[in-house]
Amino acid sequence: MKKFQFFDKNIRQQRPELNFCTFNYIFAEYICYLKRKHGNDYDEMNSKMEQLGVSVGIRLYEVVSLRERNKRETKLVEQLRFIQGIFWKHLFGRQAESIERLKDRPNDYLIRDENPLLLKYISEEGHISPAQFMCGILKGVLNASGFTCQVSYQFKTDERGVSYYPHTVFILSFEDARDL
Amino acid sequence: MKRIYSNRNKMMQTKVISNLNTKLKFIVQVFQGLIFIYFIYIQKQEKMFLILSQEDHPLYERRFPLKKTTLVSQQVLNAQFILHAALDVFDEKYKSSKELFLKEIDQKQDYRVYGYVTPSNIRFLVLTDQDEERVKIFCQLAHEQLIKILMNPLYQLGTQITSPSFESVIQQLLQNRLNQ
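Above: the input entities. Below: the structure tokens describing the complete assembly.
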């Protein structure tokens, strides 16, 4: 009978709140673990974080869809609005700032977040960053809903080189032009 | 005189017996004919529930095979064949629809194929003779149970679901909702 208890739980109504410091403690330890394991191999570290983000993203997307609304999206722009609004709010407590599109890169969309929650207590190092984990989450969500893309991030810097860390921009590059 | 009489008796007896024989044969033939007609018009079909991933990997299958083979066994098509054949129609429908429950996709006499898509493009297929409402409720409940399986971090996305408690929960749902 113990096994049945897990499946009897109702996941529709739960809105669990987690202490951010707890999460941050584990996450910081994870970054330290990656650094210890891979040393100076930044590509490997980034890809591992991204993989973690992808598996988290797919699962979270299902749960958030179940709890917040019961519809799918077939158009890309609607899906991005969903990610920026409801999904971001569910994960980080606020909506992302904006969705943008550049003229000279028609295949890319940008999601801008001025103060990402995950980067609050982590300093800027330049090579690896928890922003890669967030890229992974975005990639997982978009790939799962049928829009294949690559996600990278950039910290905003001024022309003079002044850094606005942690103001982050996530660049979503779509390969298939039909998705746009 | 006696011999002739006994001979006549015997002839009469054999006539009566042969009459009975032909009558019996006739009755038996009529009965066989009725069974034949019964099995042509009142076909029993296998029922099936199938979960497919985005890349068309089967995650979970549940068949209800017929216990006794009928006389005209070529007309009883494999449930798996029917479901897989309904996949192209399903693909067209789910790529253009925002809804999760896609209603009836295909039909074979009384038995209908119903489709349901989750936000991360995992597809449910149900071959049954029940009506739409029941199948919709069943699909929604099965979706919730599937999310519980997905949330397991040790479950690799896209592989078969082998958890025995999932099977028993799905079996309960099928018995309650679909009278299976």
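Note for the figure: Chain B has two domains: 2-41, 47-178.
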